[in-house]
Amino acid sequence: MQKFNILVGQSGGPTAVINCSLYGVIKEALESEQIDKVYGMKNGIEGFLRGEIMDLGEAFSDPDRLELLKQTPAAYLGSCRYKLPPIDETEIYEEMFDKFRQYGIGAFLYIGGNDSMDTAGKLSAYARRHGSDICFLGVPKTIDNDLVGTDHTPGYGSAAKYIASTVRDISIDAGVYDLKSVTIVEIMGRHAGWLCAASALARNEHVHNPMLIYLPESPFHMDRFVENVREALEKESNVVVCVSEGIRDEDHNLICEYKGKADVDGFGHKKLTGAAKLLEAAVMANIPGVKCRSIELSLLQRSSSVLASGRDREEAEQVGRFAVKSAVNGESHQMVCMERAEGESYRIDYVLKEVADIGNKEKMIPSWWITKEGTDVTEEFLDYVRPLIEGECEMRFRDGMPEYVYRD
Amino acid sequence: MQKFNILVGQSGGPTAVINCSLYGVIKEALESEQIDKVYGMKNGIEGFLRGEIMDLGEAFSDPDRLELLKQTPAAYLGSCRYKLPPIDETEIYEEMFDKFRQYGIGAFLYIGGNDSMDTAGKLSAYARRHGSDICFLGVPKTIDNDLVGTDHTPGYGSAAKYIASTVRDISIDAGVYDLKSVTIVEIMGRHAGWLCAASALARNEHVHNPMLIYLPESPFHMDRFVENVREALEKESNVVVCVSEGIRDEDHNLICEYKGKADVDGFGHKKLTGAAKLLEAAVMANIPGVKCRSIELSLLQRSSSVLASGRDREEAEQVGRFAVKSAVNGESHQMVCMERAEGESYRIDYVLKEVADIGNKEKMIPSWWITKEGTDVTEEFLDYVRPLIEGECEMRFRDGMPEYVYRD
After folding, report:
1. What's the fold here for domain A4-155+305-361+390-402?
2. Structure pTM?
């Protein structure tokens, strides 16, 4: 078998472990007899189209540096949000396939979420139509956990662990004073509530928060919310509420867009206010005598690697390695998926599924994993998510700070 | 020498290491021949006045449980913000001193910041006036680092490490896309800018952010800020700005209060907006074509212990131990202070200073540690703060989450 080169890119939003998938790709490729060079595209296909390519074997010739890649958050190669046109618009595809030939690319691996799988799917479809023998494979990644076809996505476990741990810390902090308080925590998730749902893991026999969890999957009513908070305050003086940024009312209007023109600031801009701020205002207006504050976890829930899940890191590496092995076996048009084996103990099998069936779809939390009232998740969801946050990662520090690798 | 009991309390806002000082107090007291029982007041003197007292020797009879106290964030005993009246209003003092006698208290140790030192100072003054031989000692604690008389305060180093690491992570995350962006990070510090200044530690040879740092010690001008950001964007496409929540204009008006009535929301409440949101609006209004977002670190900068500084944890324990030793030596009316020894290598000496000289004062960043433009700190400040974030802490986890101890 003739040796070939592979090309790998990262796309979409960062996660704590997307670089572990890159590590898996590089490591497996360097160990493979069939693969010559591993090229990385800078800033995904957007950079690739500008010819921004690097030799990853060279960049990581120092094995120690390669190990540090695993604890480096965000996307080492840089990322993009670039949507390819339909494959009938052949010009850009011809340009890309020319470049593939120029670099001797036998396999194209794209690490990303829904949009990235759309890219991988289109390139794969173009290759099919035009009889190219280049392999196109998707490597799943997203903190949102909303990719169909896979039990979960690498990146989700670490974000879930960060969120659960942070919500527990917030609950303990908010409980130090002997007074009634409501703390509203806004968590990422525009369409699917997987991240916010993971906040339920903050609870233990001493921490009863979050007392309430609101997800985009259940319609949100402001009046009912205020009533829920009032009831929660009768049980606990320290109430933490977790809310997805994407909560919607019965008509699918985003709650965070309620303020609209009413919230225009001195500079004439609107929409500076998230859902949590609005809920905070509702509590303050309707439940007097209670300390209320809101906190947006914002980028922190995906940008920190100090609370990365050991299992997530391991699985992120494995999906990368599996993609390279699949390319060596001549597989194409697929995304690496994780299947959870039945039974008591947790085990994942790595399989391939048609990438065209995955892009542009969104997996929501099934309704039977949300309680009837729409303010909590069920025990079945907790059984699903618990194994994903297990295991801790050794971190190397320098001068008191986590040590990372950087692209030159 | 007759054995005596000690009473310890925690007061004011939580830190990542306030429980390490409690650990130091308990450990040293249990090891001392002179001390019989170690009582803890729940929720500071507020709870104590209601008779809420616990036997800490009993609560921590399991040494393993005592070790876990060190990695538990917030305040194990609970906290309060309770201001004692002047000592001429004797009623409340008589009540307290009665309770001290009832529990055989020979020493009263209060772990806290400025307000807590006001409490320790008043009790100490009352004891002096009325010839009580109970020792009153202050144990410093605050993330704000604004206590006079001490090189720095336990709690600051861990918050500084969290902030520096988080700002670096934010900068890396914000830089993954190939576009111009401004990210404004709001950091605690109503009066003193120590925490925000520590964000400068985020920089290294690859990370140039924060490009701009605004502190309450330097007057803030909105127009000049916009100009600074414009200039920064000429040097870097990914600009992170760090800003203290308490930045003020030349007339000492808080920037976060600028919006005033203009920001009244649908519920009739104002002041939902912090300084960072206002700066974000200013950038969006004045610098078109740039992605801009703001992030408040909020409680997270003090409520997480996973990035606690090893040195901070050790020093927090030592101030607690030193307070107990001082009580055994019959010292009173003092706060434990840290003096940094001259010379190349970092060394701290623990000394006592009159607590009455410490409460209700605030230590600001000296002007010579802030650059002339008021948008950065100097190398001398960095030399001061670098040692404080050094050293990592082993954390014990259970089920994927940091393990803590809780009060029953």
Report:
1. Rossmann fold (3.40.50)
2. 0.96
